[in-house]
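Subject: for your reference before the review

Hello V.,

The reviewers asked for a structural picture of the protein, and I figured it would be easier to keep everything in one thread rather than splitting it across files. Below is the amino acid sequence we used in the manuscript, unchanged from the supplementary table.
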Amino acid sequence: MSSRSRQAAARTRDKWREKVWYQILAPDYFDNKEIGLTPASDPSLLIGRTVQPTLYDLTGNFDQIHVKLRFKIVDVVGQQAKTVFHGHEWSSDYLRGLVRRGTSRIDWIGPILTKDDYLMRISVIVFTITRAKTSQEKAVRKAIEKVIRAHAKKHTFDELVQKVVLGDLAAEVREEVKVILPIRQCEIRKSKVLKGPEEVKARRARLRRGAKS
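And here is what came back from the structure prediction:
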């Protein structure tokens, strides 16, 4: 090895020695469970980083390994990186395995606003037992929207995230939808945080100013 190569290797080793390993924690509403470890030479460099564990990593339930979560680091205290929920998504392979011939897949996607002004996009998927008629599909989407928006209106962001990720909200949607036609499965397959309260309130203020001018 040349002297230049040895110097470069030494610099790389020194940089790694300077780095500290930080424990990444899920939010309070997921019991602050560890969801990863990451090195950084400065804690400020961690802010904004995302980590993508599965729901299995939080619950220990292997049946939930297809649910991919996304958390964003927002604060560092000591050697612990605090996160907020940023979204979730079911794996495409798992969803493809749910498709059956002679049945229908019904999707509903829409923005919702939580009680404490978090703007999210929610995607719901329903698999029927038999082929659905167009009128039934419209009725199902209307029922989904009714349940989702009602819960968003009365729950805070933290409360709604738990209901979304752990399946409680999907169960309530299912109860409403199965009255319309027989269904095999109903799930919230994806969610994404679009804006926080500060951005939502700022947009409202802009709209109010525009209405007055």
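For the response letter, the relevant points are probably these. The longest strand covers residues 183-195. Residues 66 and 92 are 9 Å apart (CA to CA).

Happy to draft the paragraph if you're swamped.

O.
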